[in-house]
Amino acid sequence: MPTRVPSSPTQRAIGLLVRREHSRKELTRKLAARGVAQDEAIAAVDRLAQEGWQNDERFAEGLARSRAGAGYGPVRIRTELATHGLRSEQVAVALAACETDWREAACIIIMRRFTPAVLKDPRQRRKAIDLLLRRGFAPADAFAAVGSGAREDVSNWDWDSTE
Which residues contact 56 (CB under 8 A, 6 or more apart)? Predict the structure, then answer.
């Protein structure tokens, strides 16, 4: 049985990157967790970044689009991107790349989960707002989605009735 040649830090990093995008910080951490020395991990990630295999901007845009498509708001996405060690400029570019109308996205979530009759109850309206806030939407967008009907098809809902 032939002996297996241990893979280099660069090969290990490529193995991780072919599965999905990783941020520089995440890739370095995963290599260190697999027994690669910190300086070797950094050197491998630097090399892959120079060659275009690893790109924080590409990672950030992909993650932001994925989270926005899953119904998360900009506050939560911004926080998650920050945990990956991305600069605020990179985060701003990634959120802009989503091309999402956040208020519209909040309205869609409310329309899927709540009926107009249910939202006449102030407690249910509060639950709807809490849902949006937990998902990372700005308070103004959450209140607008539940209270003012930012979409045409919800503009005729009677939000003020407590019957």
Answer: 23, 24, 49, 84, 86, 90
